[in-house]
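Technical note accompanying the year-one report. For the benefit of new consortium partners, we illustrate the data format agreed upon in the data management plan: each record pairs a sequence with a structure-token string. No post-processing was applied to the example shown here.
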Amino acid sequence: MNAVGATPLSDRGPGRPRGLVRALGRAVHRPSAAVARKVRKATHAQGAGESGLGKLIELHAVNSAGDMLITISLASTIFFSVPTAEARGRVALYLAITMAPFVLLAPVIGPLLDRLPHGRRAAMAGAMLARALLALALAGAVATGGLELYPEALGVLVASKAYGVVRSAVVPRLLPPRISLVKANSRVTLAGLIATGLAAPIGAGLHQLGPQWPLFAAMAVFVLGTFLSFTLPHSVDSAKGERRARLSAAAGEPEPWLVRHTPGHGRRAEKRPGLLTVGVSVLNALIANAHVRMLSGFLTFFLAFLLREHPFPGMTAAFSLGLVVVAAGAGNALGTVVGAWLKGRAPEVNIVVVMLLTLTVAVGAALLHTTVAVAVLAGTAGLCQALGKLSLDALIQRDVPELVRPSAFARSETLMQMSWVVGGAVGISLPLFGTLGLSIAALIVAAGTVATIRALLTAARRGTPHPRVA
């Protein structure tokens, strides 16, 4: 018999599973909702929510997560799934088909987006949607390893770089009053690094189901990014008061030696009057950052193959590569945090320190060629890349007029992407001798140090005048 007032078992049986499902749903939803609220609070702090910067930070996190998922799938197909000799050939083909054309396309992306200032949200959404569709196409290509994988990878690469250029131009439009440009870029970069770190194990887990599964996840992530792009404020598409920047010294300022001796300099100098300029300090900072990015691209490819063929003593190839990747990521994150703490103070001095530190560690790694030295070099490259970029941001904010700042960011980011490509091409072309490769890395940094430090110190002593608008 049932107790008085009790519900019969036959009546409560069907509702019990539904109640358990609801309880389980609440148990899962509440922690995730709490995490989402904390993330939203962090990204929208100090007026970033009102200005729209918080939405850009979240969009960049989505972008970084999607790129990492695609990287995991492509790396497994092109690099890890075949012997070293064949993998090197595949990566060389990947560079030839994807990065070589990008070197030709990169100089076009910045000026093209300069001419389309009213479509920045659409450009970012288009870059996201293109990668979503290409990820779906790549899911079929990775299963067979056919040649169609390479042009599809080219599309992913170009869309990713185009997004990066547009994002650099958008940040100045979304600055809240209480946040400097350096701090804003630090937040954006740090969000991307965190998202990359979270996506990596997820992608690795999905890869256990098959190389196409990280690509399916990337497609979903980029579809989300497409919609998030249109949630950015309408001010992103406003070009009111903006003009295009020219990466040349201001009238009466000495130009860096590297600029004066580049092919076609005389012809460009004749056309310079009447154009907006960025100033000699910004130009020297660009040269320094270009060499640090070149070092980063070089180390990415050279160490990947070197450690696969000759891993660190007592370690497997996978563990050796993982150690270098973690060191580089930790250095990048540390550089972002330190750069935000410095708040753009004395950017010329910071760039001098960055170059000298990178050169010292690179020379030490070439001489010692030990596990610790190589790991420290990878970490230093990540640290100095982040610090150098934030110092460049500070100089652009200080020396470049506001009406050309978005254009200056777009063009500088294009130069950084091209430098990374060139460094990667050098890294893949060298024989796998550690001392030789690390010596080349030191020479890359030494060239940048010689080309920038003297002029930057001179500019810091004199005080760089703000460029004039003609």
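Partners are asked to follow this layout when depositing records. The longest helix spans residues 84-114.
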